[in-house]
Amino acid sequence: xxxxxxxxxxxxxxxxxxxxxxxxxxxxxxxxxxxxxxxxxxxxxxxxxxxxxxxxxxxxxxxxxxxxxxxxxxxxxxxxxxxxxxxxxxxxxxxxxxxxxxxxxxxxxxxxxxxxxxxxxxxxxxxxxxxxxxxxxxxxxxxxxxxxxxxxxxxxxxxxxxxxxxxxxxxxxxxxxxxxxxxxxxxxxxxxxxxxxxxxxxxxxxxxxxxxxxxxxxxxxxxxxxxxxxxxxxxxxxxxxxxxxxxxxxxxxxxxxxxxxxxxxxxxxxxxxxxxxxxxxxxxxxxxxxxxxxxxxxxxxxxxxxxxxxxxxxxxxxxxxxxxxxxxxxxxxx
Amino acid sequence: xxxxxxxxxxxxxxxxxxxxxxxxxxxxxxxxxxxxxxxxxxxxxxxxxxxxxxxxxxxxxxxxxxxxxxxxxxxxxxxxxxxxxxxxxxxxxxxxxxxxxxxxxxxxxxxxxxxxxxxxxxxxxxxxxxxxxxxxxxxxxxxxxxxxxxx
Lengths: 334, 151
Prior knowledge:
Helix content of chain A: 25-40%
Helix content of chain B: 25-40%
Strand order of the largest sheet of chain B: 2-1-5-3-4
CATH superfamily of the largest domain in chain A: Aldehyde oxidase/xanthine dehydrogenase, molybdopterin binding domain
CATH topology of the largest domain in chain B: Ubiquitin-like (UB roll)
Number of strands of chain B: 5
Oligomer: heterodimer
Structural class of chain B: alpha+beta
Shape of chain A: elongated
Number of helices of chain A: 7
CATH topology of the largest domain in chain A: Aldehyde Oxidoreductase, domain 4
Order of helices and strands of chain B: EEHEEEHHHH
Radius of gyration of chain B: 15 Å
CATH architecture of the largest domain in chain A: 2-Layer Sandwich
CATH class of the largest domain in chain A: Alpha Beta
CATH superfamily of the largest domain in chain B: Beta-grasp domain
Distance between the termini of chain B: 47 Å
Largest sheet of chain B: 5 strands, mixed
Structural class of chain A: alpha+beta
């Protein structure tokens, strides 16, 4: 009986969103009377940080300051169509739609500012909530002022609409070739584990993770996704499962007492690195992050257990019972 | 039955059924938004409140029990809009994503640090064992708590 250590590796390619033409996102950006902007999306903020990231993208596309952007989400009656918040798709799909809508708004603002300043729109620059004549940045007019005057002086609605869909790619009947995905994110996980051959318990000592995310629109939020995903993957690898109602109903998983999530003391050391390789299809190069950060953890832990005890566990979670059973079968076959 | 208790420093009086939980009374009758229904059986910590300064699952506490007592939610912590040290640390460390577990986490930490201002890692993890978080992976939460622990 011993405590055996092992190291396992897993790599992942993650296609952002659903593909093949069935996955549109649309948005409308509307200026408010005070010159701030509301971005209407049907996507949902569920803690991943959509409210912040989409506001960053809208501010960049319009040239507004981020404090003047409000993202209103989740109201499918007011917002145009969005397929949904899943498959790590919202930053990429809705981000692209917001860039288009934001560029429409930017053009309207430049046209109105050219009337106010009596110069051609081509001679104007717009950034961070200010509009100025090229070369004279200290004599500026604020974006809020322009958006407000558009409504009250020039009678121009400041509304931008945008939409993004990955076009359907037909499979070539001869070669089977197609372009099925909009962008691929990549990742790699290395897990160090210790397996107690007496109790069958697996302890994860360290997780090293590296993810290529296109562009980290908000690095702090990407970091949050990576660590949160790692711990969710850890739970899936070692503990979490839904047992059915047989042989008896008392075996059914009914609560967090049987469906055991990791708690604060169960978290191993997590070392991570973000790599940026901007994709031409993404908003400012961004790819999807949320889902792949949970996906690679369990395979790496399974491989680390294999490295430690020489047995491949083929069904999650890796419970002590499964480890002990696998060890005893291995012993018999010798 | 009619009960009187202090909620975040204010006197409240409310008619409750004998079988009603404190969680339901706080949420449904008194409009408290920061106390969350998670599992309803004392496993997740989203509903934690302080009763006379001690952390309790409000989903497992009958409302009648708090008659004459002092109940505090996370809303009572900030003074004149100024967040407490632990709340600021949560913000600085990005320790909330969806925010569902956050009020319970902050209350359990406050109760722990009042009793024991410099807990060991073991004491800290023991205190947090009844509070589940699905988003953050706990690391930013632990970092936030460590940043305010006096060593």
